[in-house]
Amino acid sequence: MPNTPPHKGSIEAIPSYTSTQEQQTQSHYQQRWIRRNAIIAGLALALALALATDVATGPAGIEMSRLWQILWAPESVPHVQAVIVWNVRLPYALMAVLVGAALALAGTEMQTVLNNPLASPFTLGVSAAASFGAALAIVLQIGIPGVPVQYLISANAFLFALGSVALLYMLARWRGFNVDSLVLFGIALVFAFNALVALMQFVASQDSLQQLVFWTLGSLARASWDKLIILALALALCLPFSLRHSWSLTALTLGEDRAQSFGINVARLRLMSLLRISLVSALAVSFVGTIGFIGLIAPHIARLLVGEDHRLLIPASVLTGALIMSLASTATKVLIPGVLIPVGIVTALVGIPFFMAIVMRRQGGQP
Amino acid sequence: MKKSAMQTSQPDALALRIKQLSVGYRHRSIVSQMTMPPLYSGQLTALIGPNGAGKSTLLRGIAGLHPASGHIELGGHDFSRQPQAERARQLVYVPQSLPAGSKLSAFEAILAAAMAGQKSVGLGLNRPASAQLDAVEQLLGLLNIDTIAHQRLATLSGGQRQLVGLAQALIRRPQVMLLDEPTSALDLYHQCQVIDAILSATREHGLISLMVVHDINLALRYADQVLVLHEGQLVAHGAPGDIITPDLLAQVYQVKGHIAQVNGRYLLDIEGRLSP
After folding, report:
1. Domains and CATH numbers, chain B
2. Complex confidence, ipTM
3. What are the chain A neighbours of B102 within 8 Å (beta carbons)?
4. pLDDT of A23-66, one tens digit each?
5. Among positive and negative, which fits the CA dihedral A42, A229, A213, A87?
6. Are the beta carbons of A2 and B141 separated by less than 8 Å?
7. For residue B65, which residues of chain A lie inside 8 Å, CB to CB?
8. Considering the domain boundaries, does residue A303 fall inside one?
């Protein structure tokens, strides 16, 4: 059978099938696998460089060699420099990396399980809900009882972000799980929460208005070591589960019916994925405020780099998100010397051209 | 058609038996209380009927993708109560088409079908075994799509995508294959290519294949057995040449036509619509 073309009298020349060709097909796949892993390694290297640059950048000029000394032997340098690096620059830079990674992970899984290239924590209302939660705490001092004052805003933002995903899921469950309606609900949530935030701004006092506006811009200056540890733990908890289901997620990109006929419990996969998404994205947004476009764009860039096999796509996307955030974080310090621009402004500015390019590609490429 | 008669008479052949099957929601069943003749291994059965007759719904019900009640028995075991993962091990459903915009390559898509549902404990180390890579390659060769193995699905033609979908089904080594209009929207050449592939897989692997088709001539030419569905009911079943008659065409399709016999093969000749 393999050596004879099955269609007699066909006009097209069908190449005959040989075992050497078989080997070629397989080795081609292996080569591509190695090449794509190399891309991921390259992203990791770029991230390490970006992180180092970010830590080395700041108003207090500290040389690279000094930096090394501060990191490994903080006792041997002037106290002020050690404090700057350990209490300001490192949390700031590491927070950028973790938030970028968290938003990219959430965006990747959202786009896959909702089968929509526009899905992200930002476009489906998670960020807007978090802003409203923060607004309640800032303007009306309404918060969760028992939460320490310094965590009031973050706790509120987290609760609302988590709640928005739960609401999204329940609304969609209510009339059977229809992915398209879920995305529409998400967009409705964005508008609803934005209106509520606007209402809060309207009734806010001068002081709290300024605070609220600053919060919604998104800033890494809120980073602290305890927040870093919480976000790192959440990522360490979620990422292995995402990778564990990477084959199922890959199969899901080929359609819900097909995935289900391969024995995948799609409803369960979706629910577990949404739980992971809500945890990491709610934490990220509640710690640093609204950061647009990273969750949307990082998965698309990663897809262009390594394709749609989620064993590669998830790590590539996480690294891409972290890299863009790290670069944006450096940019916040150098764009206007002496002024720390909120990172949310920078990511949106960097994000929009990327976003337009993707939209153009989609229109040009596919019917 | 003689071949099918021979196979049907094999008493020990693996059979899919469907009894009293209702598919749909509680108050709105689209297929109700259907009992089908047994479907045997190595046989290709065509499911025909007008639009809205419930053909796709029936297939989805058997595959467990649509709520259904009744008996679905494979080799004496009732598997209608089995969890989806268990059912998917024996039965595979092939939807109409693969998404046209996918960035997966044909190779990756087929591999994903083999690996779907597999989880690993290690961090991202869920690598396929070399036996699985071999199986993907073998299928690519068998279906003559090895030259497009590393192209993105988005760049393939409809016929090539359909063959990739078929390879995805075959790599799972099912006993039952349910195909929803595998030849729709394909040109003649690719229709023949896809049906040839389905038929040879059915014969060689002893599959029980049930396929929805709209083209009656394809059913006449390739199917061992035909089931005719009309308004959620099975109205006729048997060898294609025996049951596709002018009466049936008039009753089910409201079309006037007859079956001609050319060189020992059956051909549908349509005169036109029946005026109401």
Report:
1. 2-116+127-244 (3.40.50.300), 245-276 (no CATH)
2. 0.86
3. 253-254, 308
4. 677 888 889 999 999 999 999 999 999 999 998 887 777 777 77
5. negative
6. yes
7. 257, 260-261
8. yes
